[in-house]
Amino acid sequence: MIGIVAVSHSHALATAALALAGEMLHDSPVRIEQAAGLDEQTFGTDAVAVSEAIAAADSGDGVLVLMDMGSAVLSAELALDLLAGEHRVRLCAAPFVEGLIAAAVSAAGGADLDEVADEASNALAGKQVHLGEEAALGTTAPAATASGARTAGGGCASTAAGSAPEGDLAEVEGEFVLANPHGLHARPAAKVVGAVRGLDSTVVLRNLDTGAGPVPANSLSRLATLGALVGHRVAVTATGPDASTAVERVLTLAATSFGEEAVADTAVSASGRGAATAADGTGGASDARPAGALPASPGIGIGACWHLAATRFDGGELDDPGRAPTAAGERERLAGAVARVRSEIDRLRAGAGAEAEIFEAHQLLLDDPAVLDGVRARITAGDGAAAAWAGVLDEGAADLERLPDEYQRARAADLRAVRDQVLAALLGRSTRLVSRAGVLVAPDLTPADAAALDPDLVTGVVLAHGSPTAHSAILLRAHGIPAVVGAGSPVLDVPAGTTLALDGQTGALAVDPAPPVLAEFADRAAAQRRQRAAALADADKPAVTRDGVTVHVAANIGELADATTAVRHGADLAGLVRTEFLFLDRAGAPSIDEQEHAYRELAEAFDGRPLILRTLDVGGDKPLPYVGQPAEANPFLGMRGIRLALARPQLLRDQLTAIGRVAADHPVGVMFPMVTTLAELARARAILAEVVPSRVRLEIGIMVEVPAVAAKTAAFAADVDFLSIGTNDLTQYAMAAERGNEALGSLADPLDPGVLHLIDTVCRGAAGRARVAVCGEAAADPAAAPILFGLGVHELSVAPPAVPGVKAAVRHWDSRECRDLAERALRCGSAEEVRALTG
Fold first, then answer.
1. How many CB atoms lie within 10 A of CB 27?
2. Directed axis angle between helix 412-427 and helix 385-401, to 10°?
3. In contact, 569 and 803? CB cutoff 8 Å
4. Distance CA 40, CA 401 (A)
5. Distance CA 465, CA 441 (A)
6. Tell me: the pLDDT tens digits for 565-582?
7. What's the DSSP call for residue 773?
8. pLDDT digits (tens, 9 = 90+) for 208-235
9. How far apart are CA 411 and CA 218, in angstroms?
10. Residue 557 φ then ψ, to 5°
């Protein structure tokens, strides 16, 4: 009978998983060993412990090794090197817990090593990329007895070399013309990576106009080097059992312009199109653009200059001559650094709202097989982990900077941002930015830097380099921080403390401005500051209209730090708690006890104010590695929110159990996302009734994101205490315009009369039976908020820093005037007409 070894970072996780597997065996004698944690309390993996566990588990029929993630995989590979071919071992990319159970049951039935491996591979996740797709890219598989051979597609590896069946080598080809305005940039490239992931096929793309390629379709960084611009012809070639499916998926994405608005005429020559992109790639004619700084984020900024201390890594530091590393040790160091950076990116992603996609692209780079293959090759050749990582990422950034399209050149900053984050983790340095008062001057900003800036302190940003289309600029706009970019290197020589004034709408920048110029900027900036200060001073007071109607202003939060910020800014309650922060960057779902502890901390931070916890909202475009899901052509219309939760009821049951425990002694509500039918709500309520005693008072609500729900609100209102309108998704679905698609930005306006009619329907259907809140970005829009109130919304949930400003605005409203404004808005024909009503 074969043996099994479970390799995990957590001793507790492995012990629990083995106990669960043991429950399925009914006393059948299966030899299962674990190598988990550095000890019972300390997370980590140890290659020596893994090799000892393999030796203990082997009775002569072979050993199957399952790993949770990251350095567990590297430790298992190193363990096989230590064993030097003494045992027949298979490293398997199956999901850790499910794979362990399936393997144990199969082994108990007498299956051989190959059969057990096949059973364990029924649900593949993150390890698929590490153990499978690198082989698909042509990496030579080590000998089976030394380190476990691998197969394309990410399943468990074969123990003996051999030719694939002739049918497996069938080649399928396709071709498309790229219609995306910015070409095959990060977002569409990420969709290509997602489409081919998990398929048993090798897929490559070539740029037929430039001759670039072929490059692997599962590599975000390599796809970018195609330099594929609008109008370019791109060929897709796939081999393997799933070749037809792979080509069909890529062509289907291309036919819909990867979810972006297509350029009307893509039948232009390569040279003609290239010239047009170079001139107009940022969305405006370059001939009309004034020389100097470029506008990047609107608003007036004025204040004392302060400089960002750039994190630099010199060659000597990367070479680290004081170390005497081994290749295995450097791979282990790299895996640990990447895991820490992934955790930090998950934290940023959880709080990024609509801009989370920016950080999802960074996560793809961390798992990019082309990047990892290149780094491993350099480490094997003798480089240290830091030098190897820097070399590969620098080469990729240089390739991007040679491309003719400005938008694609700006993506080099993403590679350098990920480069520096991992280097900092490897070298024990911090890259986290600390905000200071005034105008920040820097060479450039990473997305992480931009996300970390405090808009209450930073009055503006001036970048010597950068692009208005860079991800950092997108995040500055989301934070409301005025910014200009491309100001030139001389701006870096401006002494700290020098007065700077900027207009992020026009790109105007004044360094140590003359009195009349300063006065013009200063009057407007001072007015903004007075408004913010007055709003913050009154933030703890209720938001009451001039005619005495109270509007509750709540906060959208994603972690404990958000909760303390929200309370400090006067939030009346937490209108939306994104519980996803508990479920990211881990090999399995959090336990009931862990969830209870986290939710209780949030409730205590709100000190008696209500807390609305949204159940897990992932799936489709936001997958979890431990919840196996097939790739979806349109994840925004796929298995997400309550749909996924009901398909994995134990996840929902555990979360509702934890929420119910906190609701027993705190004012807590639960909100179900992406509800579409009454049957979904009934099933969710039934699970809630199973796990939460009836004596516990727990308000129940749903997100209104699907137009069909808005249309039948009256049917839902009888079964809920509240409805919370997610205007971001409701607008996206009503307008058929993906909210992450920059090219469709003008369509994604919640003030479109069609969207307002849906909100009006919700308010009318809920009147007298359930309260209505809005938790989308429209709640903080000065033009939208009074119209929402006039339609019948009486709770606005916004980002924590926006709470004081929204409360201050409410105090200027009159409910009768707002109702009249709303009625006139419903009669408008466009969002532009509606905005004109508010002046």
1. 6
2. 170
3. yes
4. 48
5. 11
6. 899 999 999 999 999 888
7. E
8. 888 888 888 877 667 777 878 878 889 9
9. 18
10. -130, 155
